[in-house]
Write a structure and sequence with these properties.
11 helices; elongated; single chain; 318 residues; alpha/beta; 5-stranded mixed β-sheet
């Protein structure tokens, strides 16, 4: 009976972890430090910033750009989330960078323009594809890479516990490439949710799966099942909402977004988004974080373990 009560208690706590993490992060999205380019002199940006800050302190960070071309380049390079051109009465967004973000930006700036009695036309310069009109495919796609990465680590240790380092690394690499190719084919060719960059999507998908597989294998080697359980807990119920999920990191509590910046799930989602929709822009940080996790896993796989067996000491007979 005690074991049954313990099982019920354990699954209840697990459910509460999921609920607290997802609902705590996503239930009340509010923007913070959303970067906006303003075409015009710095005085114009400062005036708009003062108006916005009075209504929503800290929600937006405005940066002046001398011309529309450089501001649009910043949008394409993921340096800003929108471009405001006050003199032309235009706002340029990129919904491919985040449906929620572009919607909130549009609502706020249109309301501000309406309050001043000026029209504001909106242009979506980098729209979402028809196969992902809601902008949620990328995050769930990454989940479809993380779970196989963890699973291949667990199953390999179960089926072939004595497999050497070279064999284990080779198997992880092959599995990552197969998983990445299969998922890219489904998302691009079959469903059209992440279209147009098949080779790049295969490469980043395989890299994500390999990084997750390496760190999960390393934890499995060092700590066994509890180690890989920790990885699953860290990457899914914590890592997924800490990335901002379909909302984006700039719309969840800042401390949680900071946690998500160093976990692989959010960076993997950014890498997928940037490869598919932004021609591979802004990949340095995602690849650096994913590479760091892969390196951690590799270190855990090669570091010598302390021997658990102690040699029998000779008995001295006086």
């Amino acid at each position: 009976m005690r074991k049954l009560i313990a099982i019920v208690g354990a699954v209840t706590v697990l459910g509460m972890v999921f609920a607290a993490s997802f609902l705590g992060a996503l239930h009340q999205p509010e923007p913070h430090d959303v970067p906006i380019a303003v075409v015009g002199p710095s005085q114009a940006a400062a005036g708009i910033d003062a108006v916005l800050d009075a209504k929503a302190p800290g929600a937006f960070t405005l940066t002046p750009y001398a011309d529309e071309g450089s501001a649009r380049n910043a949008l394409a390079d993921r340096e800003v989330d929108a471009v405001l051109i006050p003199d032309a009465g235009r706002l340029v967004v990129a919904s491919a960078g985040g449906r929620t973000g572009s919607t909130v930006i549009t609502q706020v700036f249109q309301a501000a323009a309406q309050a001043q009695g000026r029209p504001l036309a909106v242009e979506d310069a980098i729209p979402l594809p028809p196969g992902d009109a809601g902008g949620i495919s990328g995050m769930f796609y990454v989940l479809a890479l993380v779970i196989p990465g963890i699973a291949v680590a667990v199953l390999t240790f179960r089926v072939a516990p004595g497999l050497g380092l070279a064999g284990r690394l080779g198997l992880l690499a092959v599995a990552a490439l197969v998983v990445g190719t299969a998922n890219a084919w489904l998302s691009d060719v079959v469903f059209g949710a992440l279209p147009g960059r098949f080779a790049g999507l295969v490469a980043v998908s395989a890299g994500v799966t390999l990084a997750i597989g390496l760190v999960s294998s390393g934890l499995m080697r060092i700590a066994g099942a509890p180690g890989v359980g920790l990885a699953a807990l860290l990457f899914i119920p914590i890592g997924l909402p800490a990335s901002g999920g379909p909302l984006g990191a700039r719309f969840i509590p800042e401390w949680y977004a900071a946690v998500g910046q160093v976990l692989p799930v959010g960076q993997a989602a950014e890498a997928v988004k940037n490869v598919v929709h932004f021609d591979g822009a802004a990949l340095a940080t995602p690849l650096f974080v994913l590479g760091g996790w892969a390196l951690l896993g590799l270190v855990l796989l090669v570091v010598p373990r302390r021997r658990t067996e102690t040699a029998a000491r000779p008995v001295l007979v006086g």
